[in-house]
Amino acid sequence: MFMDVILLLDSTVRLATPLLLTALAGLYAERSGVFDIGLEGKLLAAAFAAAATAALTGSPWLGALSGMVVAIAFALVHGAACITFRGNQIVSGVAINFLAAGLTVLLGQSWFQQGGRTPPLMGEGRFETITLPLAETVRDVPILGPIYSELLSGHYLLVYVAFLAAPFSWWVLYRTRFGLRLRAVGENPAAVDTAGISVAGLRYLAMVCAGILCGLAGSYLAIAQSAGFVKDMSAGKGFIALAALIFSKWRPVQVMGTCLLFGFLDAAAIRLQGKDLPLIGEAPVQLIQALPYILTVVLLAGFIGKAIPPRAGGTPYVKER
Amino acid sequence: MNAQLPRWVDLGLIPLLNLIVAFLVAGGVVMLIGENPVEAVEHILYGAFGFGEGIAFTLFYATNFIFTGLCVAVAFHASLFNIGGEGQAYIGGLGVALVCLAFDTFLPWWIIAPLAICAGAAFGAGWAFVPAYLQAKRGSHIVITTIMFNFLAASLMVYLLVNVLKVDGTMAPESRTFEEAGRLPKIGWFMELFGQNIGGAPLNLSFFLAILACVGVWLLIWRTKLGYEIRTFGANPAAAVYAGINPVRITVITMMISGGLAGMMALNPVMGDQNRLFLELAGGAGFVGIAVALMGRAHPVGVALAALLFGVLYQGGAELSFEMPAITRDMIVVIQGLVVLFAGALEFMFRPVVARVFARTATAKGAA
Fold this sequence. Notes:
Chain A: GO terms for molecular function: transmembrane transporter activity. The complex is a heterodimer of chains A (321) and B (368). In chain A, strands 1-2 form a two-stranded antiparallel sheet. Chain A has a two-stranded antiparallel ribbon with strand order 3-4. By secondary structure, chain A is mainly alpha-helical. Helices cover 68% and strands 2% of the residues of chain A. By secondary structure, chain B is an all-alpha fold. Chain B is 74% helix and 0% strand. Chain B has 16 helices and no strands.
């Protein structure tokens, strides 16, 4: 029983990682006043770029790098449309999602001829899990041993990166000059402009941050968790991450908690597939999987506190003339 | 930026320019794969218009996109972004299928069809009601809630098809096939009017329903009091409230009309083609509707033309992927993305340039 719980929590951490990285990406974009429903597309494009590069070069590091470059490129297209050309941010996000969904499979099929997959990565091309020091030695210690060796140790590097990125983002957002400006530009861009700081520049910088994080998330999906890209492998994770971001009311530490909760629901749904539960009968797997969406809708309806988005979100900034 | 331009430039030239750029970029993608874009276009056009069955398939796909395009367009007029057409169409399919499953053993098709239309529209409208109500009353953003409702619709339908509606003893998650009375007649006679053979294409009566829906939406938006209120609310909500228009009422009604149109789309695949309820029945048409509505500038005529274009791309794309295996049907999704990007998000990109050109010719004329 205890071991079951440890394993469940272990897969919770694994499943929460891409959500966390993607939700933090959304945090930077939306805190700067750019709504980003293109997270899903950036995640998918990054996963493809990472897998394709890792397959061709045999290096997961180059893979992750190219994942980030591609995600930044998509983020900048979104930025150009929303910041420079003052287009509709939702429409632009939809376009990003379409482009990523189409291009990944189209180019994948054209380059590798495996029905949109990238070639499976062998040993070297994929990130390896990290065993923390002494993990094997303490495995037999009761209670704490399994927690350390199963739950904390033995994850991919990107898992640790993701869980450090959340407190780091808190520090950036609330303890640095850049963070103060970022929050200000999402609430009141005119004030930032008056202070002599470029609104467009800050927002583009935020989009680059979002690209980097989406790139890491995509790399995790394609070259750490799996050994290659498959069609539509993000499977709505970008939208769950968006839901997590809203559920946490655009705050970094809470984002981490929400992503762990949503990851836990996912892990539980996988474990309960086809099993009978006491009282309810067969586990309602679809219901558990739908819970993140239901919770977000309930939150948005104002039944659990109030989710107030950054005030300037969704509107392009026009300097007065 | 705010320079006045002639109407035909704003409504004709600039959208056309955006579209041309979108298709030029699409041509670039084809070249990147190492194929000839001109040849690709020839294959698409032959596949879509070269023979009777192809034309019928083109119109069959266009039927779906007219409904979903109108769905997005109606919401646009109230400045609402209904991204949930996919989920509304999916749930609409449930309504259509339930009517067919309930009555197909003892009622004729011409009684079942109107009932199925109403049920599809009602289910779609019902699925749009909650996001609309939450937007109007509780201030939750409709884009986010409709996205969530797309996923909820997918989960619900998987549950129903796997646990409730599946035929006992089979593996496939789909309902039983409807009896003859639960099927819409194909319209081979319509194709024969033009000397074409429908072949095996599933073009059916819902095509005419789609045309009727275009007329209906035009009447609604530009010829009724409700349409005027919708447009006023869309243009300036504050002014609309000042004029005595109830924002909650308009938001909810507009979204329910929008969802109802999406729900009616399900008639085409469920009652017209497959004759059963199946997974993923909307097949992304709800999202194509976004591109169609943007391209058609939210006008029924524009929507019908844009839906036809996407019908051509879907049917021609099938032919294309057969002739040029390197270009899979995912090319259509890329084109969809480019159209949404250039005709939607970047719609103002060329306006300053065009405005400058017009200003220069105007001064030149003034000098001469």
